[in-house]
Amino acid sequence: MPTLEPRVAPPETFALDSSRDMLEKLKREIERLAGSIIRQEVVDHGLNAAMTAWHLTDWTWREIQGSTLVLRSLKALMTSLGPVASTGGRGRLRDPRLA
């Protein structure tokens, strides 16, 4: 495991500055969950991992938003996954830049 180095970050992010930081946090939460045997620890670490994974999508979206290359790649991926994946099950693409 890498050595943790102190960093100055806005207090509202608790020294998490990027989606990469959130991914590392998710890995730590999953390790804690995997090592838990007490029911309440399983619940706590499971919920923490789920919430971290959800927030990781927010951080990642914020970082890639507006990137034409990423949007094209995302469209290609969604197209390869089929019509339900590319439309979110709603019958149309939500972001007109992906059309």
Topology:
Layout: H1 19-34, H2 39-64, H3 68-81, H4 83-87
Helix pairs in contact: 1-2
What's this, in brief?
This protein has helices at 19-34, 39-64, 68-81, 83-87.
Descriptive account of the structure:
This protein starts with 18 loop residues before the first helix and ends in a 12-residue tail after the last helix. The longest helix has 26 residues, at 39-64. The model has no long low-confidence stretch (mean pLDDT 76). It has 99 residues and is an all-alpha fold. The protein is built from four helices and no strands. It folds into two domains: 15-65; 67-99, no CATH class. Helix 1 (19-34) runs antiparallel to helix 2.
> What is the alpha-carbon Rg in Å?
17 Å
SS field, number of helical segments: 4
Order of helices and strands: HHHH
Gross morphology? elongated
Number of domains: 2
**How would you sum up the major sheet?**
none
The residue ranges in which pLDDT falls below 50 over 5 or more consecutive positions are none
Please estimate the helix content: 55-70%
Q: What's the count of strands?
A: 0
Calculate the mean pLDDT score and round it. 76
How far the N terminus sits from the C terminus, by CA atoms, comes to: 42 Å
Structural category: mainly alpha
Q: What portion of residues belong to β-strands?
A: under 5%
